Amino acid sequence: MLRAIDHLVVAVTDLDGAVKTYGDLGFTVVPGGRHTGGATEHALIGFRDTSYLELVGFTEPRPAHRWWAALARGGGLVDFGLQTDDVAGDAKALRQAGVHLGELERLGRRRPDGVEVRWVFALPQGAHLGIAPFVIADETPRDERVPRQRAHPNGVAGIGTVTVAVDDLAAVRHWYAAALGAPGETVARPELGATGARFTLGPHTFEFLAPTGAGAIRDWLGVRGPSPYAATLVGAVQRGPLDLARTFGARLALA
């Protein structure tokens, strides 16, 4: 069963710089190490709701990597994963709903302290990347992959709402309704020139928005294509949007 957001991926051009600026914004940032056999390294921001932000940087050019093109278009929020207690079953359900989802893969990384962590996951393919989730389950204990340091000076306790810009709302709504067993709630976001569907998953909410006319969502789709647009982080001491220059292009707001 799909349980909650596992994590949001933030692609950055300078991982060391991102670690500093997110720390300056009041987040506790934990080094994550390098992915086994890959060209990415990352740092993590863990939350009390068990989700986290993954700040990802490349150690060498990798044009074929699934996040490389999004980084070239500005980076920021590029992907999201969902926690599951039945990764094979949920991957199958998403495929049956129409999501182009790859086969199960195993991956791991060595933390800076030498501990090896491993997980199994299935990734969306092609045009479905960034609007369909990847599904992920741990093979080593989850607390070895997700930072135990989950308190932050800015008070953030977790992820609230993730907003995803889409150009085929009916198809995306069908995916999530089928996978979650609920039709979702219709929402209007006139300030963004959009309408869409809202789904709740554990403590987290998704809004999938398609443009109804001129506005921020249409502009985003024109530049970035269907992809994550924004996220709110809840429990903060002070509320409001974070500076895009300091978040390396991730449209994040404290709530």
List the defining traits of the structure above.
2,3-Dihydroxybiphenyl 1,2-Dioxygenase, domain 1; 6 helices; 255 residues; alpha+beta; 15 strands; seven-stranded mixed beta sheet; eight-stranded mixed β-barrel; 2 domains
Concise structural overview:
The chain is an alpha+beta fold and 255 residues long.
Describe this entry's structure for a reader:
With 255 residues, this protein is α+β, with helices and mostly antiparallel strands. The protein has two domains: 2-145, 2,3-Dihydroxybiphenyl 1,2-Dioxygenase, domain 1, CATH 3.10.180; 158-254, 2,3-Dihydroxybiphenyl 1,2-Dioxygenase, domain 1 (Roll). The protein has six helices and 15 strands. It is globular, with a radius of gyration of 17 Å. The chain starts with a strand and ends with a strand. The relative contact order is 0.19.
